[in-house]
Task: structure prediction
Amino acid sequence: MALKVAIVGLPNVGKSTLFNALTKTAAAQAANYPFCTIEPNTGDVAVPEPRLKVLAEIAGSKEIIPSRITFVDIAGLVRGASKGEGLGNQFLANIRDCDAIAFVARCFVDDDITHVEDRIDPIADLEIIETELMLADMESLERRRVQMEKRAKAGDKESQQNLKLVDLALTQLHAGKPARTAEISKEDRKAWDMLQLLTALPALYVANVDEGSADKGNELSDLVAARAAKDGAKSVVISAKIDSELAVLDEAEQLEFLETLGLAEPGLNRLIREAYALLGLQSYFTVGPKEARAWTIHVGDTAPQAAGVIHTDFEKGFIRAETIAYDDYVALRGEAKAREAGKLRAEGKSYVVKDGDVMNFLFN
Result:
């Protein structure tokens, strides 16, 4: 399940530093000038999952394979990006290919790192980005609406449905609200998604703070958290600089470094987990001597759908799923004891998979 999150923000807010830390590479050039990132860098990262290590130890698994999520480092947008300023059109198209957006806001003061607007104001930064995305959506919708209206008047049912959604989106945007705030029925969801609106993408706010504020944040990150809450979104406090330094250390060195900073884990772990949840994702596990593996599914997926993530034949020929809750698997130290205790369940096609289920599929 290839799902992508765009890392978006103004130049020099720490996007590329964050991306480098996420992918544990220096693939994105984190330089102190606008547009140092010309092409979108893509990084496939593991979703932090401590439960996998526990399962592997119980089952004696030789290999641990976590779920993964893709982040795309989008070059810094600037005021006027929707009109092509700062290579804006190219970068807006790159965002359109993603499934969600992580808005990075600069919440640190450093005179050695310039700001494209010559001030430190994370809320103003976020508003510039949101405005440019909204303007790009409005231009796209108004351009498509002309032909859509002609087909709708000619009796085309699909165009009539789509025209209603386009007008709903335009109403939201003209009122200064992103498209994601519109209430869309389940029946219209597919057609709505086909509009590919930038402001309809789920959003996560990332407050990039200085090293001294990495544990609890600061006044600037508090403003970002309040803005996120107002928009019905989540926010995460990280220090991209700290996490980029952590990324090149081994596990023991990381733990020691985190302890000196008073941090329980890297900020990136929280960011990745929040991005995973933002996309409506969860994991189930398969466990055996060969490997302990996390599989990515959507919240609400049934057992056959979960089986299909492994192989489409598993879904087509699904018979049943042998399922053990994670807590039961751990408490009883594996499948055999769980089966003896009656904690291994045979679930059918209508079973909705729970996060952390340990599963084995039987199929034709």
